[in-house]
Design goal:
Blueprint: H1 17-26, H2 28-45, H3 49-57, E1 64-66, H4 76-86, H5 92-99, H6 103-116, H7 130-133, E2 141-143, H8 154-166, H9 170-177, H10 181-196
Antiparallel strand pairs: 1-2
Helix pairs in contact: 4-6, 5-6, 8-10, 9-10
Length: about 200
């Protein structure tokens, strides 16, 4: 990309310092609150402020989705996109980037999910025996990064992740995702075949 005449790498974003001062003043409450919260977390949990800052700068890597999201009547991609838009308050271009998908696909998917109705996320998972699964309910989330691999569908990526990271068999996966056990077997087999054909 060509630079405009007279522009250098260090051209300031703001025209003058007073613009920066106005911005800081207008955001002072939220900045003060944010810094206070970061300091409180640092002290309470013994986490270095630099580490917290690094997490905030790369927060996309830490987005997780509740497994109960996939019990929705929506398709898996519709559920993910709807949740990211309505609950995480991300815009469609952010969602497309995070899911490694075309923005038009994300827009169409969101429109379809919106037409089908409200997203229902089963956070309770009352019918799931977490003792038998040997998983704490609060840790039962899926990193968003799992779905960025375009070679696998959302459901394939989810099933493979849950099998490999939580050791769930087809019966457990079927019950958890409220899908037929044979459907889960087919989904996992199809995902494995895609991996071996690479």
């Amino acid at each position: 990309m060509a630079k405009r005449k007279g522009m250098t790498e260090k051209t300031p974003v703001f025209a003058n310092e007073s613009s920066v001062l106005q911005l800081v003043n207008s955001e002072s409450d939220s900045i003060t609150e944010s810094l206070a919260l970061i300091e409180e977390i640092s002290k309470k949990h013994g986490v270095d402020i630099g580490h917290i800052t690094e997490i905030l700068e790369h927060k996309d890597k830490y987005i997780v989705l509740p497994v109960g999201l996939f019990r929705s009547k929506l398709g898996p991609l519709e559920a993910v996109v709807g949740y990211m838009k309505e609950v995480l308050d991300l815009n469609l271009s952010q969602i497309a980037r995070l899911l490694n998908r075309d923005e038009t696909t994300i827009w169409t998917t969101y429109q379809n999910s919106w037409k089908k109705g409200k997203i229902i996320v089963d956070l309770e998972l009352k019918d799931v025996d977490f003792g038998a699964l040997k998983i704490k309910k609060e840790n039962f989330v899926v990193p968003l990064s799992v779905f960025a691999n375009r070679e696998l569908s959302i459901l394939e990526a989810l099933c493979v992740y849950l099998r490999e990271n939580h050791g769930l068999n087809y019966t457990m996966l079927g019950k958890l995702l409220e899908r037929n056990e044979r459907t889960i077997w087919t989904v996992v087999s199809r995902a494995k075949k895609k991996w071996t054909e690479r």
